[in-house]
Amino acid sequence: MTRRQDGDGDQRALADATGLGAPPPAPAPDLARAIAGMRPVRTRHRFGAVAAVALAGLVWPVIALVHMPPRRDLGALPLAWVIAAAALWAAAFTASLTAALVPRRGDVLPAAGRASRIAVAAMLIVAAFALFASVDVPGVSMHPEERGWSPMRACLHCIGFVFETAAVFLVAGLFALRRLVPVGRARAGLALGAAAGAMGGFVLHFICPFANTAHVVVGHVGGMVLTAVAGALLAAAVIRR
């Protein structure tokens, strides 16, 4: 007991001599004011980026659907098919854009690999639908020759429209992705481009007068594939590590 008491007394003496037992000094006035003025950091909303990109990019598609004449065979096509095809294009757009910009619940950043897989699956499903389920109405649906166009010119025309529709989505999406994808930039860009191209295909579904299978596969689905490739290349080139 005496040795323990002597040891405790030595520790107290050492603490008094070195100042280790004294309370910590008060912070400097500037530091105290800075601490008092601190506020909690506002966390990023999971759906903030995708909402902003969608709102910016949907302006032109809405204008096109309102002001451009509908395809002349729209009223003659089976209503169920029109709805199904439109829903498929819209689903491809929504799934690809959400995968590119929205983290899964519990994650901080979007998963680029998952986004690219979803986008590729969306392109394959849309391509299969266009290849095996395209519908035209003989005598009502238009063919490129009626405008004096070759089939290739008609496809290039629609591909150009898809890129025109995709432009704002790509610009706004790449701006949003600059802080969201430290790795996998090309894969995230591919999903973003696929979503942008799917929206172009959605609009063409209602306004493009050419309904034959080859045109839809090459001009509409091909446009989606090309915007996906463009998104991947742009993301890899523009977004810094």
Structural class: mainly alpha
Question: Average pLDDT value?
Answer: 87
- SSE string, helices as H and strands as E: HHHHHHHHH
Strand content: under 5%
Task: Report on the biggest sheet.
Answer: none
Counting H and I runs of at least 4 residues, what is the number of helices? 9
* Principal-axes shape call: elongated
Mind sketching the topology for me?
Layout (H helix, E strand, L loop, with lengths): L1 H17 L10 H8 L11 H10 L1 H9 L11 H23 L10 H22 L17 H27 L7 H23 L5 H26 L3
Overall description:
By secondary structure, this protein is mainly α. The chain has two domains: 2-36, no CATH class; 48-238, no CATH class. Helices cover 68% and strands 0% of the residues. The protein contains nine helices and no strands. It has helices at 2-18, 29-36, 48-57, 59-67, 79-101, 112-133, 151-177, 185-207, 213-238. Helix 3 runs antiparallel to helix 7. It is elongated and about 105 Å long. It starts with a helix and ends with a helix.
